[in-house]
């Protein structure tokens, strides 16, 4: 971004010289005035320029005024004749100085106004440039987005057009195939209609001339067929009965042969184990007898168990602690009718009687066979 340079006034070191007439020679003597500096542009503010320039100008003006008063005093001492002219020149110079000051002040004010206006213009230009840049950037972004959208739409439209063209081509082919098939069907139906019309014409002539004769022949043939069916049915019934009798005979023969073969097989298989089988059968019979005996014993014991339990409870109640029996008056305690600990019911000590043995094994009360 271009920077706009602001100009401020700078005074050069050249002095404004005014000719002064001295004596009859009319010599010119330079008189010093406040220097006027030309403006050179640099980037500085108005307040700094004024704060730097005004004190320098005032000091220079005071120095010049002192020098002018000294020069005027010397001139009065040297030559009183030219006093009026010198004063006139001094007044002229003062008026010129005042004019220059006023013009300088106007220049400063004009410069301040111009710098302010220039700053406002630069600010407005920068704002417009920024707004234009933002709008241009947004427009470029929108243009790029719209370009992408247009490209995408063009691509999608092309793909859609291609797809629609392919679909249209397929639809045309299908419709052509359908029309061809329909045309073939129409031709076929026309040929069938032609044949049907020919058959109708033939039947119309047939019904008029040959149908009655054919009807009589058909009825006679139907009667013959029915008679043949009846005869054939009788033959089939006879054949079925013969087949059933023959099959029953053969099945009886086969069953007898099977029984004979099974008997032979059983005899052949039982010969080496005949003694063992006899022992097993005898043991089985013994076990059955033992089981019956044990069931009777179990039922008898079930009947005796409640009686024995009541007797045991009665015996436990009759037991006395010897200490309580001896020191009954001293302890003054009631006897506890409880079965003492460690006493086992006599039922657990009962021994089973000798039970029969089967092949060296003892049969228990529950009917199980165990080793003796």
Automatic annotation (TrEMBL):
TM region(s), chain numbering: none
Biased amino acid composition, Basic residues: 39-49
Ranges for region Disordered: 1-56
UniProt keyword annotation of Ligase present: no
Record keywords: Coiled coil
Keyword Coiled coil among UniProt keywords: yes
Organism domain of life: Eukaryota
Compositionally biased tracts (Polar residues): 1-15
Family annotation (Pfam families): DUF4618
Coiled coil start-end: 161-249
Protein name (Swiss-Prot/TrEMBL): Uncharacterized protein C20orf96 homolog isoform X1
Organism: Mus caroli
Lineage: Eukaryota, Metazoa, Chordata, Craniata, Vertebrata
Gene this chain is encoded by: C2H20orf96
């Amino acid at each position: 971004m271009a920077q706009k340079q602001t100009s401020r006034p700078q005074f050069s070191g050249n002095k404004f010289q005014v000719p002064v007439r001295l004596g009859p020679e009319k010599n010119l003597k330079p008189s010093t005035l406040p220097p006027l500096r030309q403006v050179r542009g640099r980037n500085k503010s108005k307040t700094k320029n004024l704060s730097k320039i005004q004190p320098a100008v005032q000091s220079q003006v005071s120095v010049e005024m002192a020098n002018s008063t000294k020069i005027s005093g010397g001139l009065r001492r040297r030559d009183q004749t030219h006093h009026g002219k010198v004063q006139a020149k001094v007044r002229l110079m003062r008026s010129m100085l005042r004019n220059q000051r006023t013009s300088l002040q106007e220049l400063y004010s004009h410069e301040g106004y111009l710098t302010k206006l220039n700053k406002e213009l630069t600010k407005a230009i920068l704002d417009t440039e920024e707004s234009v840049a933002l709008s241009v950037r947004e427009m470029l972004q929108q243009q790029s987005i719209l370009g992408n959208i247009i490209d995408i739409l063009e691509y999608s439209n092309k793909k859609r057009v291609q797809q629609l063209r392919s679909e249209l081509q397929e639809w045309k082919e299908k419709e052509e195939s359908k029309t061809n098939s329909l045309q073939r069907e129409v031709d076929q139906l026309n040929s069938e209609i032609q044949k049907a019309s020919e058959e109708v014409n033939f039947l119309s002539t047939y019904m008029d001339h040959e149908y009655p004769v054919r009807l009589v022949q058909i009825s006679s043939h139907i009667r013959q067929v029915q008679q043949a069916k009846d005869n054939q049915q009788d033959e089939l019934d006879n054949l079925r009965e013969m087949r059933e009798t023959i099959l029953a005979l053969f099945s009886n023969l086969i069953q007898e042969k099977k029984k004979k073969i099974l008997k032979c097989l059983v005899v052949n298989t039982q010969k080496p184990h005949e003694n063992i089988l006899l022992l097993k059968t005898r043991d089985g019979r013994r076990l059955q007898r033992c089981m019956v005996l044990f069931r009777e014993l179990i039922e008898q014991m079930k009947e005796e168990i409640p009686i024995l339990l009541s007797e045991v409870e009665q015996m436990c109640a009759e037991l006395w602690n010897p200490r309580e029996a001896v020191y009954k008056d001293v302890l003054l305690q009631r006897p506890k009718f409880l079965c003492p600990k460690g006493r086992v019911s006599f039922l657990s000590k009962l021994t089973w009687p000798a039970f029969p043995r089967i092949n060296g094994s003892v049969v228990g009360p529950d009917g199980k066979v165990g080793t003796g």
